[in-house]
Structures are given as C-alpha cells and as structure tokens.
Amino acid sequence: MSIEALFSLKGKTALIAGASRGIGLAIAKEIAAAGARTILASRSLDKLEENAAALRAEGYLAEARQFDAADSASIQALAAEVGPELDILINVAGTNVRKHFEDYSKEEYDRIMQTNLHGIVELTQAIGPQMVKRGKGGKIVNIGSLMSVLGVPYLSVYAITKSGLAGLTRVLAAEWGRHHIQVNCIAPGFIITDLNREMWKSEPMLNWLRGAQAAPDPGKPEDIAPLALFLSGPGSNYITGQVIPVDGGYTTTATWPFEPK
User: Fold this and answer.
1) Using N-to-C axis directions, what is the helix angle for 106-113 and 156-176, rounded to 10°?
2) 20 to 30 A from 254, CA-CA: which of 86, 89, 134, 141?
3) Helices 156-176 + 119-134 axis angle, to 10
4) Does residue 257 form part of some domain?
5) Nearest C-alpha neighbor of 162 from the set 91, 229, 60
6) C-alpha distance from residue 246 to each of 51, 65, 239 (Å)
7) Is 7 inside any structural domain?
C-alpha cells in the first residue's frame, strides 16, 4: 500500500462530534484534507459554519451540523440524519472542572458526565449499529485523556468519564470487530486548549512538566490530529481496542538533573 493510500479517506464520510475548536477542529482539518466528506458537529453552529466554510474554500468537502451532547433529541436527530452515511465517527466532545473531589456539586458532576460520557455513549449507540447494517466496516475514534490510563489530582469526575471511554473502546472493539469496525481511543497528554490555557501560563507548571516527561513543552491540538487521521484510514485496519497516549512521553518517561561526568 502506498503512503498516500495509507492515509487517503477519499469516498469516506466522517463525523467529528465536538469540532468547533481545539483538538476537534484540528482533527476535522486533517480528515477533510485526506479527502473525506467531513461533518463538523457541536453546539456552536455559527463557529462551525465558519470552520466548514474555511475548509470548503481550500477545496475540501465540509459541512456543519448542530450537536449538543447534553440533549438527547439533538443526538438522535444528528444520528438519524448522518448515521446511515458514516464511515468514520470521531468522538471529541468534552468539558472539565478542576476541584477537590469533595467540592464537586451534583450539577457539575452531572454536566461533566453527560457531556464527556453519556452523550458520547448515546451517539455511538445510535451510529454504530448503522455502520454494522451498512456492511462496509467503519472506524470509531474516541478522544480520551491521560485520565484514561492514570490519575492526576483534582480531575476525579473528568477521570471517571475518560476511564469510561477507554473501557467502552475495548468492549466495542470486541463486539463490532466481526463487522470490520475498528474502535480505538487516543489519550492526549498535556495539550494546550481553551479549557486549560490559563493554567499553562504558569512558570511553575511549565518547569514541572520539563522534569516530568521527555518532551519539554505542552502539546498542541495539531499533535493529536495525525493519529486520529491514521486511525480513521486503511492503514489501521488491524489496530483495534487500543488506548494510545499522545503525551510527550508522560506515561513512559521522566527526566532528572543528573548528568554523567
């Protein structure tokens, strides 16, 4: 298989759920550039329309759809409209609040759980069987987190949702593999987005990271998109049920000040 064929998505239709900004938008750009008809979905329809128009101006196939992970009617409407045509589903929608575990309110707990897990479960439950029925295989890529594989303080509710996505990934890979549907999860490391930009302006945080992983700096949304593209294409046909960190080495490396003489 040629390098171009490994990454080509020509003739495919992809839905990126949570594509108005950050990681979702970066992924949508890569998916569109690979030739897929790319459906950008999120609550912010005006922003989506702007993003889709920019992609079309570059000669790509892109369109916007409204999607609210906290609204079941919105989820079901989106699945009914685009589900029968989908080859690729990429679940990105997410939110976060950082607090001591005991300080989360029920409203905060419910909102994070609904946006990060329950809404994604409902959307995948609506679209996956349509992929099975089409009989053409498919790709499902969930965007998890480092919290899918380890624990960091003050992220307890977020960690529940992202651990849930990792478990869902493995089980759906087992259930739908016979239908040639691959299901994988990307676990981004410390990626600067609108959800954490202020936190990463702190010099103590940046100094800590330099000693905590091989890559000395936080990542960018564009660092996640290439793996999402690969997992959406034919080069990943024998990869399924995996949770793959893209984390600058955080889960596997550490640095120290010692230098041999």
Assistant:
1) 30
2) 141
3) 10
4) no
5) 91
6) 25, 28, 16
7) yes
AA identity, residue 107: E
Strand partners, 88: 14, 139
Report if residue 261 sits inside a domain: no
Phi/psi region, residue 30 (left: phi>0; alpha: psi -120 to 50; beta: rest), is: alpha
Angle at which helices 45-57 and 22-33 cross, to 10°: 30
Its pTM stands at 0.95
Give 145-204 pLDDT, tens digit per residue: 999 999 999 999 999 999 999 999 999 999 999 999 999 999 999 999 888 888 898 999
* Domains contained in the chain, number: 1
Q: What is the CATH number of the domain that holds 12?
A: 3.40.50.720
Geometric angle at alpha carbon 40, from 36 and 46, rounded to 5°: 140
Q: Rounded to whole angstroms, how far apart are CA atoms 192 and 209?
A: 13
Give the whole-angstrom CA distance, residue 32 versus residue 16. Answer: 11
Q: Which residues pair with 191 in a beta bridge?
A: 219
Residue 102 belongs to domain spanning: 3-246
Give a yes or no: residue 166 inside a domain: yes
Q: Give 226: exposed, middle or buried? Use CB within 10 Å, 0-12, 13-18, 19+.
A: middle
